């Protein structure tokens, strides 16, 4: 057996069909990395049809900083001929192709020309031999996990524990067969056909890490924020959050209900918030469209509400299992009338936890609906990050007053430091006997319907002023790289890691490049014009379509409109896939289609 080569990081892409359980072993590899003080980031694709189809899971794990899921794979595992043919181009020159020789026949001339090492392993046949004829192809994913544990000298005790956790509660034979397949893969003599590897000791040790995907982090963040009621309707890729909250909210005295449709979900959440409970609802783009009128009601009635939108490809049913950032316009402007709302977007999995706590704080301080824009890439991406300090993160749900002297819920000027009346739900005793009402009609300070022209103008200005007041509180976005120079990349959502890596690569090659990531999208932070003026060009990188007139995507158009800076241009894509670092760097050299 070869002496293992020491490496700092590796990108492994596993290609097969969705029924092969490749997401399960990819998940276990990622969690193993997290428990070993390593950094990790994953990427996966799954078919949109119930019947299944081709699928991949990519794991980038390393001893040092991991900012993206990786542009190209160091090791490609192909279960089928179509897996080999579709993904060979994603394997770097000089990489390793591990393929199931039971059904894959690679072109050896092509592999030789690219210096790719072919490693034929009869995974299906060996799994059947280990588990018996009844095993068929089930278990070859665990056989592969054992094989990769050997290739990278992974801690087998930790792998066995992960398998035990994965199949806890299953029939004893399921765990036994899984461990048999694992040991069979680990014992296979793959070291005679390829180099073996060992990761360097991690840069950070002794740090308690948690490893999870964005949807899990969002669900736990909601609980930490004090959310105690949620309502939703299933839709990909939001449903995992709904399922997590359905299980976990009752443990904290909360409730999550699945309603008959999207309208009922948002209406139930508004009703619970009106009653004084921190509430939320969520969906993906199609469902948010259906909720739009009710969100407008929450704006008019000044009811604090968290609305999560896990974006996917659109319009209509679109691409249910692919990533896109095309709901920004819907989030910011998707309502009739002047309907200002707050919009936030997390930058990574850790941000999903912490930023949603901030979203709930804003909703209750300013009595507004807050739309939280995640996306499919963040929803399914697994990352490891330091365990949050739960003593500091956990927010107690607000305790409504039992009695107040007087109450104007829609006071035009309220002297409590931020100008908006505190929330007193129905049932609160009001000493002066003047009880307000709530309506979607324009109203006076007590909520009584009013068509007075002056009152409508004042109330409209007050609702708008909430965003202006919030903007004054927002921190200036940090610049990654030089504070001034030739090109500034601007991104939002799940693109932060690849933008940072693009800056690192460009800087190492002697080229000036900086980046800035926006988490607050409505309102935007103050001072962006001054930042943009320090760069020759500002390139807004986002996964949505470019406008025919400006050449910018949705955020790029907003930035041009709000800053009047002519040096802003867009770098967009709509293929349903996440950006690769090389893709961004290559396209930076393209001439801008619109320059002014």
Question: How do you describe this structure in short?
Answer:
This protein has 596 residues and is α/β, with parallel strands linked by helices. The protein is 36% helix and 21% strand.
CATH-scheme architecture of the largest domain: 3-Layer(aba) Sandwich
In the CATH hierarchy, what is the class of the largest domain?
Answer: Alpha Beta
Strand elements, count? 24
- Beta-strand proportion: 15-25%
Strand pairing plus helix content: what structural class?
Answer: alpha/beta
Number of domains: 4
Rg over C-alpha atoms, rounded to the nearest angstrom = 26 Å
Average of pLDDT: 93
**Inertia-based shape:** globular
The name CATH uses for the topology of the largest domain is Pyruvate-ferredoxin Oxidoreductase, domain 3
Residue stretches low in confidence (pLDDT < 50, at least 5 long) are none
Strand order of the largest sheet: 11-10-12-13-15-14-22
Helix content: 25-40%
Biggest β-sheet: count, sense, barrel?
7 strands, mixed
CATH superfamily of the largest domain: Pyruvate-ferredoxin oxidoreductase, PFOR, domain III
- How far from one another are the termini? 62 Å
Q: How many H/I helical runs?
A: 20
């Amino acid at each position: 057996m070869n002496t293992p080569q020491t490496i700092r990081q590796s990108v492994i892409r596993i290609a097969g069909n969705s029924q092969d359980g490749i997401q399960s072993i990819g998940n276990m590899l990622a969690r193993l990395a997290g428990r070993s003080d390593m950094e990790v980031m994953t990427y996966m694709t799954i078919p949109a049809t119930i019947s299944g189809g081709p699928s991949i899971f990519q794991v980038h794990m390393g001893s040092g900083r991991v900012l993206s899921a990786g542009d190209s794979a160091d090791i490609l595992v192909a279960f089928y001929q179509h897996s080999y043919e579709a993904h060979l181009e994603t394997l770097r020159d000089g990489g390793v192709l591990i393929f199931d020789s039971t059904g894959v026949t690679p072109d050896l001339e092509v592999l030789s020309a690219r210096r790719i090492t072919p490693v034929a392993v009869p995974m299906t046949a060996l799994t059947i031999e280990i588990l018996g004829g009844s095993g068929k192809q089930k278990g070859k994913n665990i056989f592969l996990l054992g094989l990769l544990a050997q290739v990278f000298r992974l801690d087998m005790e930790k792998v066995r524990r992960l398998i035990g956790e994965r199949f806890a509660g299953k029939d004893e034979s399921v765990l036994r067969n899984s461990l048999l397949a694992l040991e069979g893969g680990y014992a296979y003599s793959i070291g005679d056909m390829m180099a073996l590897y060992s990761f360097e000791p991690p840069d950070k040790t002794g740090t308690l890490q948690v490893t999870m995907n964005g949807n899990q982090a969002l669900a736990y963040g909601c609980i930490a924020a004090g959310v105690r009621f949620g309502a939703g309707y299933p839709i990909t890729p939001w449903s995992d959050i709904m399922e997590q909250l359905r299980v976990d909210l009752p443990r904290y005295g909360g409730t999550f209900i699945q309603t008959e449709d999207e309208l009922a979900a948002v209406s139930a959440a508004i009703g619970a918030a009106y009653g004084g409970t921190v509430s939320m609802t969520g969906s993906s783009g199609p469902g948010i469209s259906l909720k739009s009128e009710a969100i407008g009601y929450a704006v008019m009635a000044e009811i604090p509400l968290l609305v999560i939108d896990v974006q996917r490809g659109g319009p209509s049913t679109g691409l249910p299992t692919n990533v896109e950032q095309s709901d920004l316009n819907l989030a910011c402007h998707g309502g009739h009338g002047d309907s200002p709302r707050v919009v936030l977007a997390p930058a990574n999995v850790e941000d999903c936890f912490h930023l949603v706590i901030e979203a709930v704080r804003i909703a209750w301080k300013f009595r507004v609906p807050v739309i939280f824009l995640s996306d499919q890439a963040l929803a399914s991406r697994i990352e490891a990050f330091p365990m949050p300090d739960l003593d500091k993160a956990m927010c107690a749900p607000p305790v409504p007053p039992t009695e107040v002297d007087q109450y104007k819920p829609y006071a035009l000027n309220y002297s409590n430091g931020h100008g908006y009346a505190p929330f007193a739900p129905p049932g609160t005793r009001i000493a002066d006997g003047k009880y307000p009402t709530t309506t979607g009609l324009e109203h006076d300070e007590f909520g009584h319907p009013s068509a007075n022209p002056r009152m409508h103008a004042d109330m409209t200005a007050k609702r708008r002023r909430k965003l202006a007041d919030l903007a004054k509180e927002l921190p200036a976005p940090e610049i990654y790289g030089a504070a001034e120079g030739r090109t500034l990349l601007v991104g939002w959502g799940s693109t932060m890691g690849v933008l940072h890596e693009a800056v690192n690569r460009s800087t190492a090659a002697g080229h000036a490049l900086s980046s800035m990531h926006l988490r607050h999208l409505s309102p935007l932070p103050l001072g962006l014009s001054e930042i943009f003026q320090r760069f020759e060009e500002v390139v807004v990188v986002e996964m949505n379509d470019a406008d025919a007139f400006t050449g910018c995507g949705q955020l790029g158009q907003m930035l041009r409109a709000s800053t009047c800076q002519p040096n802003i241009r867009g770098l967009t894509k709509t293929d349903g896939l996440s950006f690769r670092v090389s893709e961004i760097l290559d396209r930076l050299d393209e001439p801008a289609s619109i320059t002014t």
